[in-house]
């Protein structure tokens, strides 16, 4: 059986390869994205799992998008256009992602959340994984 960190690494490998041409920044594992990052980045984090011969659970994939300046506004605003473009592109990338070890599917509709202290929003994708463990 694999640990949560093992599963996070495996999903990170699939995600970073699948999203390389989609996001403008880098892909990080949980806790590795610089706190002052001002770039469009992806963070992969193991959330929960069930052990056994058939492992299953959820991995969060968050895509961060910096707010934008708009003429006439004193404060930066949500980059709705880019968030929407990424939501569709990332969802499509997951649908096409192939891995011999896992079945990966989106678990729910992607949602956006504000991170006001760094003037960014992120799209949260909950990725459901299923893995049959044989002789681990």
Task: Describe the structure in your own words.
With 136 residues, this protein is α+β, with helices and mostly antiparallel strands. Strands 1, 2, 3, 4, 5 and 6 form a six-stranded mixed beta sheet that branches. A hairpin with a 4-residue loop joins strand 5 and strand 6. It is elongated and about 60 Å long.
Which helices and strands occur, and which strands form pairs?
Blueprint: H1 4-19, E1 27-29, E2 41-50, E3 54-66, H2 80-96, E4 103-106, E5 111-115, E6 120-132
Parallel strand pairs: 1-2
Antiparallel strand pairs: 2-3, 3-6, 4-6, 5-6
Short description:
This protein is an alpha+beta fold.
Considering the chains and any ligands shown, give keywords for the structure.
six-stranded mixed sheet, 136 residues, elongated, 6 strands, single chain, alpha+beta
Distance between the termini: 5 Å
Largest sheet: 6 strands, mixed
Structural class, please?
Answer: alpha+beta
Number of helices, counting only DSSP H or I runs of 4 residues or more: 2
How many β-strand stretches?
A: 6
| Strand residue content | 35-45%
User: Which whole number gives the mean pLDDT?
Assistant: 91
- Can you tell me the residue ranges where pLDDT is under 50 for at least 5 consecutive residues? none
Secondary-structure element order, N to C: HEEEHEEE
In helices, the fraction of residues equals 10-25%
Query: Shape, please?
Result: elongated
The radius of gyration computed from the alpha-carbon positions, rounded to a whole number of angstroms, is 16 Å
